[in-house]
Amino acid sequence: MSELLCIDDLTVVPAADERRRLVDGVSMTLQAGRTTCIVGESGSGKSLTALSVMGLLPPTLRRISGSIRFQGLELTGLTNAQMCDVRGKRIGMIFQEPMTSLNPVLAVGFQVGESLTAHLGLKGDALKRRVAELLERVGIPPERAGSYPDELSGGQRQRVMIAMAIACEPAMLIADEPTTALDVTVQAQILALLAELKSRMNMGMLFITHDFGVVADIADDVVVMFRGQIVESGPVDAVLNRPQHPYTQALLDCVPDAEGRKPLKPIDYAWLNEAMA
Ligand SMILES: Nc1ncnc2c1ncn2[C@@H]1O[C@H](COP(=O)(O)OP(=O)(O)OP(=O)(O)O)[C@@H](O)[C@H]1O
Ligand SMILES: [Mg+2]
Description:
By secondary structure, the protein is α/β, with parallel strands linked by helices. It has eleven helices and ten strands. The chain has two domains: 3-90 and 168-276, Rossmann fold (3-Layer(aba) Sandwich), CATH 3.40.50; 91-167, no CATH class. The strands form two sheets. A six-stranded mixed sheet has the order 6-7-8-3-9-10, with helices on both faces. A four-stranded antiparallel sheet has the order 2-1-4-5.
């Protein structure tokens, strides 16, 4: 197996208050053809970890330590221009909210084509053909290429985002809660599509979610984050069925069972703080 991504000791803080560690010493690796799910409650640092890999941290935040190697290339030392060459071409990203990530005044076919022109120099008929192919691959009729984002359903917009993210056949896909806003049927279709693309293109996938049903469905490996730190990681079966860390156990205790019979247990933070002390 070839190592695609290696994050080592990543720490991110607000520029104005360097003592607040929003991401705190995070290390993880991802292999080609595998999916790692990052789980953890809201505010645990999942998105900031993903944005750090993409070189898209907001300017008010600062990475104070850490190395991020992708296909052997150290990303943290790259200039913005060099990073633009990696982003979109070698690493694709699907953002959580497709309506705010798509440009409302541009036809979706044009938006799918933009990175093909920028990174691969495709134009004219070759570009049109490739855009049609990509739309078809994500289950959107190619004749919808001229539609604007607001003329598509939420699920279709998310599919357009996926088409954009995989346009240049990146080696790695980062998906930040790509199905949270969708109903369960569309979610299942999108997950099946991502799994198929992953195996067909041997992509590595970093998938952020707080839905353990999704984790059970698509993860090979799981990383559990809490207050900016990784508290547990390992193969999906071990983490879901034999969680070692009190936080993972507490998280799993608040997942409803299929029949809805299990009493839901809110996380007891006082107990957790003690268990982690
Ligand atoms: N631009 C910012 N400036 C200051 N703090 C920020 C900024 N962006 C995020 N944070 C803080 O960093 C922490 C981690 O945020 P992050 O967005 O990574 O959480 P998350 O795990 O993705 O949560 P969610 O599940 O809600 O998306 C949070 O406490 C958040 O308030
Ligand atoms: Mg987030």
